[in-house]
Amino acid sequence: MMDTGDLGALLETLCPMFVLVDETGRIQRVGPTLQKLRPDQQMAGKSFVDVFKLVRPRAVKSVSALMSLAGAKLHLKLHDTPSTALKGLIAPLPQGKGAVINLSFGISILDAVRDYALTSADFSGTDLAIELLYLVEAKSAAMEASRSLNLRLQGAMLAAEEQALTDMLTGLKNRRAMDVFLGHLISGSTPFALMHLDLDYFKSVNDRFGHAAGDYVLQQAAQIMIEETRSDDTVARIGGDEFVIIFRGLIDEKVLSAVAGRLIERLKKPMEFESNTCRISASIGTALSTQFVSPKAAEILHAADLALYEAKRKGRSCHALYSALAELGQEGTTTGTPSE
Questions:
Q1: Helical (H) or strand (E) element with 109
Q2: Stretch 202-220: mean pLDDT
Q3: Which residues, at least 6 apart from 338, have a Cβ–Cβ distance to it below 8 Å?
Q4: Torsions phi, psi of 292, nearest 5?
Q5: 32: pLDDT confidence band, cut at 50, 70 and 90?
Q6: How many CB atoms lie within 10 A of CB 265?
Q7: What pTM did the predictor assign?
Q8: Is 25 within 8 Å of 10 (Cβ atoms)?
Q9: Distance of CA 236 to CAs 171, 177, 228, 246, Å?
Q10: HEC profile of 55-91
């Protein structure tokens, strides 16, 4: 008859989660995978009922009662944490020499793989757990690939949306983005100021030094506008040399006039491009949302245009407030398009 040592070696190959107990219920040997669940606690030499808690059948309280359950399905847990759920089947040895109890994880296998870092090498080659592990691994890989693809798609969509709202030359918002932001402010009843800025003498720069110089001037002007405004403000290029700045929550005319003054002073300074000196200036008109009972985007833009035309009429490099025009009764008296 095979001795305990040979039987243990055989069981380690066939069922690496076995428990070999003697007739008193003391553990003689355990499979390597089972021992891996408690690497710092040797199971051999301990009583089976001290290591494992029998959940079903609950009536079993002794080793002799356990031995009588040959062929019955057992539901067990480890006494200490993590108290992994296990299933078992007991097979008594001949002549009452003890029993072999083969254990498995059942539906708790995924938790066990996670908790104990198990791999396919910890299971018998014929164990269906191997197939399940392969399926889980394949599913995880597929989900990770899907997640990565979704992130790339979301990134591409965000980039496309951002591009659709951005002026590619200056990096500022474009007319579409301005319309969207303006609509949000009006629908939310948020007070704001709208500043319409037109670059004076820009056409002369293009005509004298070429479009590359003109593009450089536009980029420098855009940078100045960004530097002179707050992070909450929106700066948009809405035409060749036309810009709109929306000041969220700012309706103080003195502060707005000060901002306009700084912009005009900075934009008047010569810009050097490839040994050429480019000179421009700026005319600015400003309107406030609070000047209208029920503000509409087109009406506020028109009011800022009227103020801009007034600044042009006064000799350029000027700033005009629509409120001043309204007080003088000049609304709508200026027509045409800002020009050099």
A1: helix 109-116
A2: 94
A3: 198, 242, 283, 305, 308, 309, 312
A4: -125, 140
A5: confident
A6: 14
A7: 0.55
A8: no
A9: 9, 8, 14, 8
A10: EECCCCCCHHHHHCCCCCEEEEEECCCCCCEEEEEEE
37: nearest Cα among 127, 105, 102? 105
The candidate with the shortest Cα–Cα distance to 237, out of 223, 249, 258, is 223
Please tell me the chain's helix, strand, coil percentages from 3-state DSSP, rounded to the nearest 5. Answer: 45, 20, 30
Q: Is 204 exposed, middle or buried (0-12, 13-18, 19+ CB in 10 A)?
A: middle
136/132 Cα distance (integer angstroms): 6
Cβ-contact 106, 95 below 8 angstroms: no
d(CA 38, CA 323): 81
pLDDT in tens, 143-194: 877 887 787 777 777 666 667 789 999 999 999 999 999 999 999 988 999 9
DSSP classification of residue 55: E
Q: Which helix (H) or strand (E) holds 156?
A: helix 128-164
Amino acid in position 63: V
Q: Element (H or E) spanning 87, and its range?
A: strand 85-92
**β-sheet bridge partners, residue 199:** 282
Q: Name the DSSP class of 172.
A: S
Between CA 60 and CA 63, with CA 62 as vertex, the angle to 5 degrees is 110
